[in-house]
Write a structure and sequence with these properties.
Strand order of the largest sheet of chain A: 2-3-1-4-5
Strand content of chain A: 5-15%
CATH topology of chain A: Rossmann fold
CATH class of chain A: Alpha Beta
CATH architecture of chain A: 3-Layer(aba) Sandwich
Radius of gyration of chain A: 17 Å
CATH superfamily of chain A: P-loop containing nucleotide triphosphate hydrolases
Low-confidence stretches of chain A: 59-73
Oligomer: homodimer
Distance between the termini of chain A: 5 Å
Helix content of chain A: 55-70%
Largest interface: A-B, 19 and 19 residues
Number of domains of chain A: 1
Mean pLDDT of chain A: 85
């Protein structure tokens, strides 16, 4: 039985809803924005900074932090500080009990445990574009541009902290195309594998 | 219901055996080395050339062909000729009836059909190294080197003919780690999805 299910996902693939549904079906705890709050409490950083830092490339924050504080190159910057707090929160949650964790590099942070099932959810561009417009509304930028930017930022963030390539097939025990298989089927497969 | 299941796989991941088992359980035809023979019959090329060309980078054959025949740069070379025959064989097999096709870029060749399930099987290095030694015996080269060379050749071959990146998560509806999930579980998931 897998105690912990980590879900990484392309923006707009519905991975978050799939994770929530899996947690409900299995009676597992579910962590996503809750996690953000917990990290915030631990670090004293503002929740909106943490939310952004989980998704975006760390470059800018490091620079602005370094310039404003005059920190030397070797010293810990805000994003490294957040990363270290995020690691310890996720490691603690994993100790606490059965759970589903969406995003936040949990697959990497929990890589030394053998009771994790690491899942990646992806979908074709048309499906994802439709999904984000339904969920987050229309913006000035095209849905395609928004998908590209968000995933590219996730990629840079993941690479920066883990040294790995986000979305690389070998990082995950199972990868599912939610647009081809349907979200319901993805939920069934994951629930079945966890048991 | 999915009429056609294409299986792409890392060398040593057991993807071929998984494909065979899936075909048996579903009562589908299974194509792999049989396919090689069929292509051979169609092209008049030697079966051993075809077997190699499916796995290896096309560069060398093109050069040797060009030099020996004095072909002009725009003319069709042996590997393009083989590719074109391979495409038509696979398209015909797909028309013929329900089947499992392992390797040979079938996922790409059949990309316009909506009754295909495209699967990728991968596994961790230790599992694959053990598997190829059990199956193909010990060689001078280390198992790790053999894995790397074979997959790298598959990658070059796939890129050359399809323009896509082999093993890119987005090419497949489902990707499974046979070392983490067990081959039996992979078979069950694929059979269930095909139904």
């Amino acid at each position: 039985m897998k105690k912990i299910i980590t879900i990484s996902r392309q923006f707009g693939s519905g991975g978050r809803s799939i994770g929530k549904e899996v947690a409900e079906k299995l009676g597992y705890d579910y962590y996503d924005s809750e996690l953000v709050t917990q990290v915030a409490e631990k670090t004293g950083l503002h929740p909106s900074y943490i939310e952004d830092a989980g998704e975006y490339a760390p470059g800018k924050s490091i620079l602005s932090y370094a310039f404003s504080s005059g920190a030397s190159p070797g010293s810990m910057n805000a994003s490294d500080y957040l990363w270290s707090a995020q690691c310890s929160v996720i490691l603690e949650l994993a100790e606490k009990g059965n759970c589903v964790i969406v995003g936040r590099c949990a697959d990497y942070i929990l890589r030394d445990r053998d009771d994790c099932l690491n899942v990646f959810i992806h979908a074709n561009k048309e499906y994802r574009a439709k999904h984000i417009v339904e969920r987050y509304g229309v913006r000035d930028k095209s849905p395609e541009k928004r998908l590209e930017e968000k995933d590219s930022k996730r990629k840079v963030n993941y690479k920066y902290f883990t040294g790995r390539v986000w979305g690389n097939i070998e990082n995950y025990h199972i990868s599912l195309d939610s647009s081809a298989l349907t979200p319901e089927k993805c939920v069934d497969i994951i629930v079945d594998l966890a048991k």
